[in-house]
Automatic annotation (TrEMBL), chains A, B:
UniProt entry tagged with the keyword Lyase: yes
Cellular compartments per GO CC: cytoplasm
N6-(pyridoxal phosphate)lysine PTM positions: K303
Family statement drawn from the similarity comment of this UniProt entry: Belongs to the group II decarboxylase family.
EC number: 4.1.1.28
Lineage, broadest ranks: Eukaryota, Metazoa, Chordata, Craniata, Vertebrata
Pathway: Catecholamine biosynthesis; dopamine biosynthesis; dopamine from L-tyrosine: step 2/2
Chain ranges passing through the membrane: none
Subunit record text: Homodimer.
A Pfam family assignment: Pyridoxal_deC
Protein name: Aromatic-L-amino-acid decarboxylase
PANTHER family to which the protein is assigned, alphabetical: AROMATIC-L-AMINO-ACID DECARBOXYLASE, GROUP II PYRIDOXAL-5-PHOSPHATE DECARBOXYLASE
Enzyme class, broadest EC rank: lyase
């Protein structure tokens, strides 16, 4: 394929994409097929000679689309949103063409520098404390990670490195191995599975902190555990707070937890993967109060801020803490500017070496929407969640299971877990909408998250009519 | 921006991209600017109201392009290639539009199933032993990682988990901490910095194995170290072999190392990040002989197989080894098909949770090029390297520093390191071509890698004329 054919096929692809997104509502949101469906639809080996582009693009509808869960359908309410917008898609086309691998400043200065400035822009939108911004002389700064899981892991590894260094500074006779075996990290019992996984990867102990009746960690709960562990000779070194948990969008009390972590010399990382986008609105910004106590903070613009995956924004107060945990300097990656102080080599901030020019997406989205446009998007989706909440509350057969703060509604039929499992099975099977469950206080709960950029009030009402119809049938068959 | 405007702007972007790539040679390959250049070119904060698309796209030339290192210029010879092709770019546009986050089978079955089959296709192209393929009933299988660094880390963590389990199975009284402190991993002193970094992350000891005169690890060198370490009470558990090292494209002797690792119950991972693509050609496939002894194997189609970043292909013999090291199952990620055996949940195979629909790129590229087209690409680039090698060999002032096997030529002026450092500085400063150095046996060496898809013989000759001209000037000024 030469440039001339790319011009033609690229324009066809742009139309295909626009058609797909304009008519996505006509497709069943969740596929109706059995595991292994795809293998039989295509050859067992790659072709020896080139095939025609027509054949390939026809196979997109024949092979791929029947197996797609349509995350951008307005009837998709599962997990949390995956961001998508036209400006981000345009920027991604450009990113693919430039195709630089921005592991160091020299590998493509624009790639690194735009990222640093975009993270400052975004930090200012959130009113992050100045110490998290790079500016021209700051000690902090931001980086785009692939996912929140990686941000959590990077923060835990930085904290581990710092803790070992601190302990050995006081007591040089202790071995690294012995210190590692005593380190203990904490997170909420409601935290995302990736937090526990980070500790597993980092080979450190992690304890789950119980939550209050609103599924949030309070200061006194962590304090008690830290004191017990210290008394037992362990070394508390890290707490991962969650703002907006995955099951119910609960908020740990970082105004209580932060001062405790600071006092105990524990690294506090804040994972606000989903909720973080909302902090650009003044009315939701109080949810972030206490961030000044954190060592690192992360949220995913690729969830709720219209920047397509992957774009997970992470800030640290002391960039040397992160860089120090990873730095390796082979000759083939050295370049003459790296000691200038103005230069950031992002490979020291992350797990992978290579990285795409992802800040282009942020730049296009922030400029095409403006802060007010982004705020309008958040507010609209929160309003839709509130609308759904009021529909649920008006139906005596149902109950709301957690406070609706942002775009997630946790609800269930009053009655047994089995009843609710059965309801979800019917919803999944009918394929008109798509939800996933969670568990809260031992109860099986349905989660409805406002996901697609194009979800409107009518979709919420349709979804509710559909759910209540299935619930009606279910209750007819199995009267409580 | 609505769908109608996206249609218009998307088509403009396709033309911009085609123009950029058609005329890339006219741009200086390496930017001429000082660190911090970008911040002063754009506002310090995001706009409150939307800006016009015209303003944004004009800023691409004003702000971005002056700071881009043009990896796809035929005058770019630095690092290793970053793959780029039009079919891959088309597939990426589609990937962005579908925008699913394929962490589990249910999150988008097509995303998972196409990936499994594409890794089988690619494994067959390489003639990987059957045990690495998923097929319909295999124990092995492939996965797309973001980068080779992640593949190395994942393999090391799987090996760590397996080693701890094995030791405890024999001696349940030993604690996990104590075992961890005795584990020792090995890799070549020529291995990529990411290998050492994986051990740092995994909190295990890693030792560097010396190499022979061709910069390769031999069986007897590893054997000696393993025996000494065992005698000292350590537990050798992992060896990362490199096929095609970053400094000089050397190949560890896996036919000797593999049987040793198998005998010692050590996990052997093979990192063939760059060289792996060449194994699709029968004449280069012998370089992979011995892979049957490996537990995991990885290379980057995003380097040399025309699939745009990120696409790092990894295969394992026993997928349970990998999954076992990471598995976490919160309710919101469970789905009804996951226990069927046919289903792969790729989140258990990798560090991040989220993942893009990257196999689309492989599918488009393999079908638009065919195996023969891909082989032709590899052969052409190897021939260009050989052509450059013969130019260097014909000039008595220069020497070749390592055998030229694939697309990388290591060379230097006969003389001091300072002389060669000076030569590279002049090359970098002139911005006509771009190279990076390496260190081999204490000598400062220049690396010329054939990178861009569009590099032709004339670019090689131009590059050599340019280098010899600068060398001539240098030697005039500083006669040896």
């Amino acid at each position: 394929m030469d440039a001339a054919e790319f011009r033609r096929r690229g324009k066809e692809m742009v139309d295909y994409v626009a058609d797909y997104l304009e008519k996505i509502e006509e497709r069943p949101v969740y596929p109706d097929l059995e595991p292994g469906y795809l293998r039989s639809l295509i050859p067992t080996e790659a072709p020896l000679e080139p095939e025609s582009y027509e054949d390939i693009i026809q196979d997109v509808e024949r092979v791929i689309m029947p197996g797609v869960t349509h995350w951008h359908s307005p009837n998709f309410f599962a997990y949390f949103p995956a961001a998508s917008s036209y400006p981000a898609m345009l920027a991604d086309i450009l990113c693919g063409a430039i195709g630089c691998i921005g592991f160091s400043w020299a590998a493509s200065p624009a790639c690194t520098e735009l990222e640093t400035v975009m993270l400052d822009w975004l930090g200012k939108m959130l009113h992050l404390p100045e110490c998290f911004l790079a500016g021209t002389s700051g000690h902090g700064g931001g980086v785009i990670q692939g996912t929140a899981s990686e941000a959590t892991l990077v923060s835990l590894l930085a904290a581990r490195c710092k803790a070992v260094r601190c302990v050995r500074a006081k007591d040089p006779k202790r071995s690294e191995t012995e210190i590692l075996s005593k380190l203990v990290a904490y997170t909420s019992e409601q935290a995302h599975s990736s937090v526990e996984r980070a500790a597993l990867i980092g080979a450190v102990m992690m304890k789950k902190v119980p939550t209050d009746s609103r599924y949030a960690v309070r200061g006194d709960m962590l304090k008690k555990m830290v004191e017990e562990d210290k008394a037992a000779g362990l070394i508390p070194f890290y707490f991962c707070a969650t703002l907006g948990t995955t099951p119910s969008c609960a908020f740990d009390h970082i105004t209580e937890l932060g001062p405790l972590c600071n006092k105990e010399n524990m690294w506090m990382h804040i994972d606000a993967a989903y909720a973080g986008s909302s902090f650009i609105c003044p009315e939701f910004r109080p949810l972030l109060n206490g961030v000044e106590h954190a060592d690192s903070f992360n949220f995913n613009p690729h969830k709720w801020l219209l920047v397509n995956f992957d774009c997970s924004a992470m800030w640290v107060k002391e960039r040397t803490d992160i860089i120090g945990a990873f730095k390796m300097e082979p000759l083939y990656l050295k370049h003459e500017n790296q000691e200038s102080g103005l230069v950031t080599d992002y490979r020291h901030w992350q797990i992978p070496l290579g990285r795409r020019f992802r800040s282009l997406k942020m730049w296009f989205v922030f400029r095409m929407y403006g802060l007010h446009g982004l705020q309008a998007h958040i507010r609209k989706q929160v309003a839709l969640a509130k609308e759904f909440e009021s529909l649920v509350r008006a139906d005596k057969r149902f109950e709301i299971c957690a406070e609706v703060i942002l775009g997630l509604v946790c609800f269930r039929l009053k009655g047994s877990n089995e009843l609710n499992q059965d309801l979800l099975k019917r919803i999944t099977k009918s394929r008109e909408i798509h939800l996933v469950p969670c568990q809260l206080s031992g109860r099986f709960v349905l989660r409805l998250a406002i996901c697609a950029r194009t979800t409107e009030s009518r979709h919420i009402h349709q979804a509710w009519r559909h759910i209540t119809q299935l619930a009606f049938e279910l209750l007819q068959e199995h009267p409580q």
